[in-house]
Amino acid sequence: MTKFTEPAKELVQHIGGKENIAAVTHCATRMRFVLNDPSKADVKKIESIKLVKGTFTQAGQFQVIIGNEVASFYQEFIKIAGVSETSKEEAKVAAKQNMNWLQRMIAHLADIFTPLIPALVVGGLILGFRNVIGDIKLLEDGTKSIIEVSQFWAGVHSFLWLIGEAVFHFLPVGITWSIARKMGASPILGIVLGITLVSPQLLNAYGVAGAEEIPVWDFGFAKVEMIGYQAQVIPAILAGFLLAYLETRLRKIVPNSISMIVVPFFALIPTVLIAHTVLGPIGWTVGSWISDIVYSSLTSAFGWLFAAIFGFAYAPLVITGLHHMTNAIDLQLMSEFGGTNLWPMIALSNIAQGSAVVAMIYLNRKNEEEKQVSIPAAISCYLGVTEPAMFGINLKYGFPFLAAMIGSMTAAVVSVGSNVMANSIGVGGLPGILSIQAQHMIMFAVAMLVAIVVPFLLTIVFAKTGMNKFSFKK
């Protein structure tokens, strides 16, 4: 018997018994259940279990926050429950039974972009570092940048673009690969499709606006413009889904004896042709509309209002899972405008949630048991992972969550009002400043200070003035 035995037995009982478990897996801090009947889970009793730090439902999965000991708890749980281990992919498939069409679409978007985040984080940091050494006049009384004075740093600046270009200009390759992998198509065909969208044979997407003449493929009866889709998101998504659709459907009707030859040929060639004649131009237009609307909204005279709404609403979006849709918008903004003014607000929302938890740590400083939840949650939040803080502390009490939303809103207005732009997405919380374009780092630091101070003070004020009776939970 271990310290996890009794809590595991309680969780099996309150989750509705092993018969109610369709699938179960875990991540870094949470147990993830797909339940046959979610209504059988007794949330109050589950949250009363000593090791449990909170619960929530997202993407069709009932998630129980355990903390850093989740891996050991999980092993004890599946042994007691008598259920087999489930991979994350299997759990996601099973979870579809509890989702509506909108939730399924959001889950698909999340599954597409999540594998790309490590590369996007690295790319954003590289672009930020290149801006610091290449664009800011730091030396000789503010007249020269570092690369203008040092040949070594000039070489570093040039070399790092090799990686930056691979991440962002060739982003469609990653997107089409990820879609093919997720939808059960051949990942290598996804890679080939992506390369056809960014081939050096094509006119670079960044050069289209200034091109005197666009080259074409001349088929006699028709001409197709040879335009590349470097850094374009929506054309790659549309092409990737078409490839996956054609390949998976062809596999069902083509005999196995000739499948290896026929399926790749009749899936890839039509997809590439349609991508360059129909999907690419449509995707480019739609992507431009979306990025123009978002950018214009944030930079208009009413940008502060848009920022206030987004800053206030982002944390609730995380609860629903709708926040995954912002990844595509961020990447489209980067493609169109060389940066994103949306991502800084997301990083600030992370910080605000963490600051509300810090206030709760101060208010409950004599509660040693809660510190075991709140301190790791605050640290995690400041590093960009908000779920433990939101579900373990802020939503549990209610008023800290509201304080964090107001703090996020205020910081977002400061950020957008100062025209802060990030190079890339992926680095959240306090490290988010590393993603900010060098010329905006000072104002982003001011916005960060707002996101730290306002939620902290509001949480304490709410606690002292009776708002502690307010709760988001029934």
Automatic annotation (TrEMBL):
Task: Write out the entry's keywords from A to Z.
Answer: Cell membrane, Kinase, Membrane, Phosphotransferase system, Sugar transport, Transferase, Transmembrane, Transmembrane helix, Transport
Q: Where is the active site?
A: 27 (phosphocysteine intermediate)
Supply the enzyme class, top level.
Answer: transferase
Tell me the membrane topology, using the record's own terms: Multi-pass membrane protein
List its EC numbers. Answer: 2.7.1.201
Q: Identify the residues that the record assigns to the PTS EIIB type-1 domain, covering every copy.
A: 5-87
Quick one: where is this thing mainly located?
Answer: membrane
One GO-annotated biological process of the protein: phosphoenolpyruvate-dependent sugar phosphotransferase system
Q: Where is the PTS EIIC type-1 domain?
A: 107-474
**Known PROSITE patterns for this protein?**
PTS_EIIB_TYPE_1, PTS_EIIB_TYPE_1_CYS, PTS_EIIC_TYPE_1
Where in the cell does this protein reside?
Answer: Cell membrane
Report the transmembrane regions from the record.
Answer: 106-129, 159-180, 187-207, 227-246, 258-282, 302-322, 402-422, 442-463
Q: Name one GO molecular function term.
A: protein-phosphocysteine-trehalose phosphotransferase system transporter activity
Gene3D superfamilies, per database record: Glucose permease domain IIB
Extract the InterPro entries matched here: Glu_permease_IIB (IPR036878), PTrfase_EIIB_Cys (IPR018113), PTS_EIIC (IPR003352), PTS_EIIC_1 (IPR013013), PTS_IIB_1 (IPR001996), PTS_IIBC_treh (IPR011296), PTS_Sugar-Specific_Components (IPR050558)
Looking up NCBIfam families in the UniProt record yields: EIIB_glc (TIGR00826), PRK11007.1 (NF008236), PTS-IIBC-Tre (TIGR01992)
* Protein's name in the database: PTS system trehalose-specific EIIBC component
* Gene behind this protein: treP
